[in-house]
Amino acid sequence: MTVLRPVRAGNAFEETVERLLQAIKLGVVGPGEKLPPERELAVQLGISRVTLREAIRALQEADYLDVRRGRYGGAFVTYVPPRPDTGDLRRVVADMGTDDLADALTFRMAVECGAAAVLAAGPLTGDQRDLLCRRLADVNEAGVEDYRRLDTAFHLSVAELTGSSLLATACADARLRVSDLLNAIPMLQVNLDHSATQHEAIVAAILAGDSEAARRAVSEHLEGTAALLRGFLS
Amino acid sequence: MTVLRPVRAGNAFEETVERLLQAIKLGVVGPGEKLPPERELAVQLGISRVTLREAIRALQEADYLDVRRGRYGGAFVTYVPPRPDTGDLRRVVADMGTDDLADALTFRMAVECGAAAVLAAGPLTGDQRDLLCRRLADVNEAGVEDYRRLDTAFHLSVAELTGSSLLATACADARLRVSDLLNAIPMLQVNLDHSATQHEAIVAAILAGDSEAARRAVSEHLEGTAALLRGFLS
DNA sequence: GTTGATTGGGCTAGTGTCAGACCATTGATG
DNA sequence: CATCAATGGTCTGACACTAGCCCAATCAAC
User: Fold this and answer.
1) Which residues form a coiled coil (chains A, B) (predicted)?
2) 20 to 30 Å CA-CA from A165: which of A107, A118, A138, B40?
3) How far, CA to CA in Å, does A230 sit from each of A39, A98, A224, A227, B157?
């Protein structure tokens, strides 16, 4: 029964490591940037500083972070996304299992399509339109290094602009579950061009207030990514 | 930042109470039925028996459960959904806040539409079609007492049939967030008839494999509910 | 240099949570 | 009526987590 599932995914330490890894891998804190101060971060995460420090130390020992003391010190992100490698891809898929993979792709398809449709259905302020266009432009201008991070930011803006934090959280969660996969896919120019066209279509549909077109555009975009995945796996 | 939100919603006791309340209010365990034995339930929920017992005692003291000892004993559900009352509705909305209300409705719209679209897009086995039709028939044959519970079961089957447990969980969560509201809405025959028509349309679209029609049908259904809510609130 | 603000590092006492064992009660079955 | 299996009730020792406090290091500003 869906509702009588475990109340907690693990202990506080494990969940904190997981969450920080999310922030790093999704590029919420990019390479070279630093996490908020421990005291502040502990409050945001709703845990004690002791537990947070244990998590940070684990990530430090795994070479994700470089921790420096003193004023202007902090926990700096050293992690840079690995170069795409289809060998990694197979390994990642083997780690997560094909069932979980299908689950994650289905979930992402549902929530991102839903978010785009909802966003297109509602009225948008000028600021919101500007933000969306800005994020789109960011992705289009992105170099290879920044592409995934800015692509993530674009997708998440769509969810955040709906004004529903539940929905934004769900989309962030969905994105995270496929981020290791996406990072392992080689970025070929032809695919990037294709994605760019689809991104344009998504934004156009949202700005036009065409809910069904928005859903269809996101659906095609994600289906394209899934097909790419299947291609590199077979 | 969405990703640096609290790692845990509360302590184990609080989360457990919340989860059991979900099971009771969503009708996963109906009035008169009993929860699984403590030892078993504790394993399912991933918590210790001590913590589970504290949660059960809290629900017992709040008159949701009747706990009996001995063989054939257990924690029996005594809670029956209150009679719809628009006064309750205003109170519930005041409790959750209008922002959270909008958030919950938006979230539900996105995930349920997404689930229906995904389900319609994929191929269905005969068993799956049967289950869907069965749930639809259950709602149509339901009395006033059982209506909400079977309506919930119908909506959740759509999500569960996608095969994505992440999606099923998201839909259950969304439903829960509006269940107090739905329970407070009077059930007028005209509304029930309207819902029945919409349910039929949803199932028809899914069985026909028409993804966009499925999304549209769910969208109209949920928009209808939202409109009903706004009506009783103004 | 010296200072002071900011940040990570470490300690302690108290509370929450857990696993496992054992006790108490109930009621169908023989 | 006696038995016994299933179930809730209780206790204990160990570990996880927290809040709060103070120490140590760093570096810009003076």
Assistant:
1) none
2) A138
3) 44, 11, 10, 5, 28
Closest approach of chain B CAs to the CA of A220, in angstroms? 12
Q: Which CATH number fits domain B2-77: 3.40.50.300, 2.30.29.50, 2.60.120.260, 1.10.10.10?
A: 1.10.10.10
Neighbours of A82 (CB within 10 A): 10
Calculate the angstrom distance between C1' of C29 and CA of B65: 29
Which among B1, B2, B29 is the top mutation candidate for probing chain A, defined by the most A β-carbons within 10 Å of its own β-carbon?
Answer: B2
The verdict on A169 touching B (C-beta cutoff 8 Å) is yes
Q: What pTM was estimated for this model as a whole?
A: 0.90
Q: What is the pLDDT of residues B68-104, one digit of tens each?
A: 999 999 999 999 988 888 888 888 888 888 899 999 9
Backbone angles phi, psi at A65, to 5 degrees: -130, 155
**Domain spanning A86-233: CATH superfamily:** GntR ligand-binding domain-like (1.20.120.530)
Distance CA B5, CA A230 (A): 33
